[in-house]
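Holo prediction — guanine.
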Amino acid sequence: MRLFQALRHDGFDFKTAQLNPSQFHAGSTAQQGSQSHACLSLDGRIAAQWIRHHCAEKVKEWGAAHLAVILASSDPASRVYVNHKIKAFKEAGMHSTLYEISEDMVSEAGLVELICQLNDDSSVHGILVQLPLAQGISQTRIIESIRPDKDVDGFANHNVGLLHQGRLEKALLPCTPAGVIALLGLYGVTLAGKHAVVVGRSAIVGRPMSGLLLHEDATVTVAHSKTQNLDQVCREADVLIVAAGRRGIVSRSAVKPGAVVVDVGMHRLPDGKLCGDVDPDVFEVAGLLTPVPGGVGPMTIAMLLLNTLRAAHLRQHGR
Ligand code: GUN
């Protein structure tokens, strides 16, 4: 089952090609020999706004859903991400409660106890533990202690299994890869029959990304840090999704002319600016490219709103 089909079960009526990349802004125009080549930007802020607007409409229909967010690390980036999530919930008319535990006070047993309380609290529809956790705390144990129907990150075994079985209408799906599929769908990028190459095999992005692409009927290759001839493998891609967490892993020479390139990476440069995993000169060959910032990042947050609403709705309807 495809993503938009699964979301339609819950009344989210997203259709492909609701947005037109050329309507918004062209990324850049580069000269290739005598020909000029336009690479268009897949603007995640606009697509995320679209989804957030739909969530706000659903809140009016169904009532607000409630997310519990646990922040138990002193990582400054985690705090920034959590603040963005809480702000987005407020803007959509949804509730969130932040449970902040200082890194020197946190214990695995204490976290499990808090999660158990939130599992039993019927006013809480979703639970999110911001990762990474402090060293010595088992991420697996923490994730697996969240009730599957409140696992709005879609990281726990139950939801991972549903995703890989293609039972997307029952699954809570990980926000970043689901956000990538939604972004491509909203801009009318067809995946069926295309060769999609995913660079990166993390549990949060690469692996679920490959499963979701398969359910969209793409032909999928997963490449990673040990892949031989990585550039050659990437050049085969009609759709190239880069989630390696390594800056510059994909450069211009690794991209097929006209390919769709989705950059999931996020790095802070010494001058404070953000960049992705993909070299900036990729715009000279790609047909469509997600910017960093403003590409996949906003989609992750939009999908978290949607997942929390779905969690509330699925529970209400006993699914
Ligand atoms: N840390 C980085 N990305 C994520 C995410 O999507 N969910 C959680 N819980 N932590 C993260």
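READOUT: The pocket of guanine is lined by residues 128-131, 153, 175-176, 204, 300 (CB under 6 Å).
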